[in-house]
Amino acid sequence: MAYRPKTTLEQWRAFQAVIDEGGYAHAAATLNKSQSSLNHAVAKLQQQLGVELLRVVGRKAELTPHGEVMLRRSRQLTVYAQELEQLADNLKQGWEPHVNLALEMAFDRQQLLPVLQEFQLHSRGSRLSIVDTVLTGSIEHIREQTADIVVTHQLPKGYIGEPIQGYVLELWVANTHPLAQLEQPLNPEVLSQYLQIVIRDTAREPVEQEGWLKAEQRWTVDHFAEALQLVEAGIGFCWLPPFVTRDRAGLTRLTLEGSRRRQGSLYLVLPKNEKTGPCARLLYQLMLTTLALN
User: How far apart are CA 261 and CA 240, in angstroms?
Assistant: First the structure.
């Protein structure tokens, strides 16, 4: 037999208002209802539940121990109902319930925090998924339109993007690594004799066409954090962004002949173009305002 609720949201809202406003009179004025109707709603609620929720002491309504528990849970119920109604209104207006953001892993997430704080205030409860991408994985998200917004280091043919703050990668080893003992700058060919730590391309069909990949020995990891652990352990060398190595002791930055660092541009892309929903466009505009190059 299907469950049928004994109570209504209006009864729970009336109960909450009596507690929040300190009594029936003030609660009635806040809800624009008569005091008698509020009395009836709360009395019926307690009768239907078979539990005393509050008692009137003087002119003030006070919670019973059972009432304290039910008040906390009832607030969750009314918030969920409000969010559900908001979601329906959002969908009616074309406001998408979910936004996918794909970020090139070399992008410093610290720059994004003020944007996300502002977005959260205006997102109307829409969920946000942030996905790390590397190399051709970013291109794949753009071409297949599997993300609403992409931050990428490379634009595939036929797509445009807004240039934003770029990325920097520097070559690091542990102080105890043999490469750290050699005179700088190094001939790049020397690196081929040692283990290189690389970040896995996130594409389903990766294309290794960028970066220095001449080392005979190579270990592949999913994130910079894993790569950093291996570097700090003296196992190999790796190209790492400054926001990963910042304030890390025990590391040596290597300099190569003709190059101290790898750097490049990053672009903000809307893969779906005119099909992009209003919530994703809101996030895009916030990112553009904060991150765009002057």
Answer: 10
